[in-house]
TrEMBL record, chain A:
This is Prokaryotic molybdopterin-containing oxidoreductase family, membrane subunit. The keyword Cell division does not apply. Keywords: Cell membrane, Membrane, Transmembrane, Transmembrane helix. The chain crosses the membrane at residues 38-60, 80-99, 111-129, 161-186, 217-237, 257-277, 298-320, 340-357, 364-389, 409-430. The keyword S-adenosyl-L-methionine does not apply. It is found in: Cell membrane. It comes from the Bacteria. Belongs to the NrfD family. InterPro entries: NrfD-like (IPR005614). Coiled coil: none annotated. Its main location: membrane.
UniProtKB/TrEMBL annotation, chain B:
This is Quinol:cytochrome c oxidoreductase membrane protein. Pfam families: ActD. Keywords: Membrane, Transmembrane, Transmembrane helix. The chain crosses the membrane at residues 53-72, 92-115. It comes from Thermus arciformis.
């Protein structure tokens, strides 16, 4: 054999195309491992609780939630931003890393794209249910009405509708496009209702070499389009805040701040999902320590952006000479919510620094614990931005704390349940690693 | 009824050589079936330069749609928001951008299905007993029995000579 490919260790172990495909299709074709059943059951139970909480919201109204003057954006918006942010890693891995020709993405893109899909779906429910009159949700769309009213396109809230819908559409199409060759393979390997399902979904893909050329052209094109969308979506979300005059929101740094936070939280969630998945399905040969190391490095890079802006925010609040801004900063650091603020700083600024050291990045237990902590840290960040800012604006008479109710908590746990349930069903039906792309990578690594 | 011949090659280089030879011998109704994109196929079977141009056209359409939507709705119901100019175009950029991407994405996906002839309910090559191999680790050439140069024994011999394992694909 000639010189080894520099990425030869991205697929470890002795494989042939056949055994590799068998391995990658195991989650779909073999009986599921026990932890899968647990995740499915827990996810399903929480999804039911979620539906009940939505039912309560619709029957009793928003009074069932903890929002009240002046904190009218509570958990609903905290969790909307949290979930949307988590989605970003999937698109980043699948789109930006395609353009950069990073071979390590091939093991990770399918499961993270699925993560994106369910995270964005979970996120999209929050704006819908927090409308006072959810039956009129379609008023956010531009349609000719007898009232002759249109959405106000100078408002970021109107931009947000289109940004999220575009994001949901492009991530779904990207995921589906990537699945088509695998669906054709599954169609030929399965029987019964599965054969019908894969047959329908594969659209009759045959593997025609000319089709493949066009397919790759469109795939790379969509990657190129998804890349600016990832950046734009969370930037637009951040403008929902930055357009407001609330101290702590009215900052031009918000778009890059949110985009960095989104990528950071998304990679954290990807690590939280991939580390157990790899263990339960014995995927160590295709999701190697090098993959996890790369993910940790991206987490570190995006996390450093977040940490930098935390520190910058403090400086700007002081330097701007705006009393309300500075009072808001002191309220965050010393007020009743200070433990939340300092916990956020501890995780996203201090503990993050451990990822500089290979010893920590290679320690899977720490990496897993840190990914969970980073999810919490990013939740705290959104809590700081949304709730703490609103609880302390310009007039002391308006300073009030926020008290979430059991409905708020159930809605949150419910979306986590829906997310886990959706992913569990997804990887039972569709391979969590892109088979065609992995086989292609296998060729590249072994034949050169 | 004979649909055609399916030839299985074990390496992409053999596939490319076989395609070249078949084209030189005048075969036209044939398809290469591969588990992943094979470099060099476009030189033999012809490339397709339409996709970037169609995407560009869809992009222009998307920009137009985005701007039209916002300019029209603003003029239809003029509303003074914070003293900003009525057609303050910088505020229209985010929606224009999102609609551009949305138009290209959906449009190019449908265009891809259209030029690839998908969805396709049935394809004769899929009837081959060993068809799954070309989705896995082998490279197939399907020669239609309707090709003017097709001759069951002659074509079979030619494909074997090129290093293939050959299967007759018939309607069952």
């Amino acid at each position: 054999m000639a010189e080894r490919h520099p990425d030869h260790d991205l697929i470890q172990g002795e494989w042939t195309e056949k055994t590799l495909v068998e391995k990658l299709l195991e989650p779909v074709e073999k009986p599921p491992p026990r932890p899968w059943k647990v995740v499915l059951a827990v996810g399903f139970a929480l999804t039911l609780a979620w539906l009940y909480a939505i039912f309560v919201t619709f029957v009793k109204g928003l009074g069932a939630w903890g929002i009240n003057q002046p904190v009218l954006w509570g958990f609903d918006i905290v969790h909307f931003v949290w979930w949307i942010g988590i989605g970003h890693a999937g698109t980043l891995i699948s789109a930006i890393l395609v353009l950069m020709r990073q071979n390590w993405r091939d093991s990770l893109n399918r499961v993270t794209e699925a993560m994106t899909l369910f995270a964005v779906l979970a996120a999209a429910t929050y704006p819908l249910i927090h409308m006072g009159r959810p039956q009129h949700f379609y008023w956010v769309m531009p349609y000719p009405t007898h009232m002759a009213l249109w959405p106000q396109y100078k408002s970021p809230l109107s931009w947000d509708v289109l940004a999220i819908m575009t994001y949901l559409t492009i991530s779904t199409l990207f995921l589906y496009l990537g699945l088509i060759p695998d669906l054709a393979l599954l169609r030929e390997r399965s029987t019964g209702w599965r054969r019908k399902l894969y047959g329908w979904l594969s659209l009759g893909w045959t593997g025609n070499a000319v089709h493949w050329q066009r397919y790759r052209a469109v795939y790379v094109l969509l990657a190129g389009l998804a890349t600016p969308v990832v950046i734009s979506v969370h930037s637009v979300v951040s403008m929902d805040f930055a357009y407001g005059l609330v101290p702590g929101w009215h900052l031009t740094v918000f778009p890059p701040f949110f985009a960095a936070g989104a990528i950071y939280s998304g990679f954290a969630m990807a690590l939280t999902l991939i580390i157990p998945l790899r263990r339960w399905y014995r995927l160590e040969g295709v999701i190697t320590e090098r993959h996890l190391d790369w993910m940790a490095k991206v987490t570190l890079a995006s996390g450093l952006g977040v940490a930098y802006i935390y520190l910058l925010e403090i400086f700007i609040a002081w330097y701007a000479g705006e009393p309300a801004e500075w009072a808001q900063q002191l309220w965050r650091m010393t007020g009743p919510y200070a433990p939340y603020y300092w916990a956020m700083m501890l995780i996203n600024v201090v503990l993050l620094q451990t990822l500089w050291f290979p010893r920590f990045r290679k320690n899977l237990a720490w990496l897993f614990v840190f990914s969970l902590l980073a999810n919490v840290g990013m939740w705290l960040e959104r809590f700081v931005i949304v709730v703490i800012s609103l609880s302390h604006d310009f007039l002391p008479g308006n300073f009030h704390l926020y008290h979430p109710t059991w409905v708020d908590w159930t809605l949150f746990l419910g979306t986590i349940g829906f997310f886990l349930f959706g992913l569990a069903v997804f990887i039972r039906l569709f391979p969590p690693i892109a088979v065609a792309e992995m086989v292609h990578l296998f060729h590249k690594l072994r034949r050169h | 009824m004979l649909y055609g011949l399916m030839a299985y090659f074990d390496a992409p280089e053999k596939l490319l050589r076989a395609l070249k030879v078949l084209r030189e011998r005048g075969y036209r109704r044939l398809e290469a079936l591969t588990p992943n994109p094979v470099e060099g196929v476009e030189e033999v079977l012809g490339g397709d330069g339409r996709i970037p141009w169609v995407a560009f056209g869809l992009g222009v359409l998307g920009v137009g749609l985005g701007l039209f939507l916002q300019v029209y709705t603003t003029l239809d119901y003029p509303h003074n928001a914070g003293g900003k100019p009525l057609l303050g175009w910088p505020a229209f950029i985010p929606v224009t951008f999102e609609l551009t991407i949305l138009t290209i994405t959906v449009g190019i996906f449908l265009f891809l299905l259209y030029i690839n002839g998908l969805p396709l309910a049935a394809h004769p090559a899929v009837k081959a007993k060993e068809y799954v191999r070309v989705l896995l680790d082998e490279y197939g050439v399907f020669v239609y029995a309707t090709d003017p140069r097709f001759d069951l024994e002659g074509t079979k011999a030619l494909l074997r000579e090129l290093g293939a394992e050959v299967e007759e694909v018939r309607r069952d």
